[in-house]
Amino acid sequence: MESFKQNAVVFDCAGTLVEMYRVTKDLETGKIMPDADNLKLVTESEGRGLIIMDAPLDLVQRQPPERRLSDFLRKEKIPFGVAYAAPGFNSGDISRILLNDQTEMTEFLKTNQEATSFFDDIVYEVFGFVADSKKDKITHVMSTGGKLFDSAKAVIEAAKENCDVFIVSGDDYANLNRVADRLGVPKENVVGLCDDTRKQKIIFDLQNHYPKVIMIGDGINDMPALQAADYGILVSRSNYYTPDNLKDAADDIVDDLLECADLLQSYILE
After folding, report:
1. Cβ of 245: how many Cβ atoms within 10 Å?
2. Regions of the chain short of the pLDDT cut 70
3. Can you give the pTM of this predicted structure?
């Protein structure tokens, strides 16, 4: 990697640059949870993992409702990644859980319809599920629709004045690349399907090339990266899970993404 500027700023995507509307279904109770906080859901039980599928929307929508998720992932060769996991969950658990899982694609079709009708100008649509290694099954399915925060473009442009800009996220590449296109971030600076550990490693790797590396995120899965960065900014949103240890990991906390532009300028000019 060749450094062109003295600083690098890494943005999370969902919840940081993109305003999200998540719809989650509890497969054990049948309850639909609008505007769900899936990271909090994962942290509530040991052995849970939030799995994001890198599956095109049109492909999912074409599936027979009764097709099993496990069959869809295997035969269509759908990439997926662990966006966040509670203690006791390992990525190797996913194959074992899927082996006997009965979840059907109809569950995703139901949540997707509600999730993507909430905003206009949707730039982000994602599918995922919560796998529970203790129960050996999928306990929740989720769909998300998202639009860029109104201030996202202005903050990215401000960051570009003195920084190389990266997007590092647990989201899938199709969505991240659409967001990057809208914001003018080079595709080679986009890394998807990252869990919290990989985000942290990317910060460490960038620190080998840049004197100053800044991290901007909003969720518990950004905590190790915020701690590792030379300067970490937490965008704390009232409707998402923001525990004290996440707040402690950041150097500054804002409740509006737009505030990051001035904070970046102040830090870089120190």
Report:
1. 10
2. 1-4, 239
3. 0.89
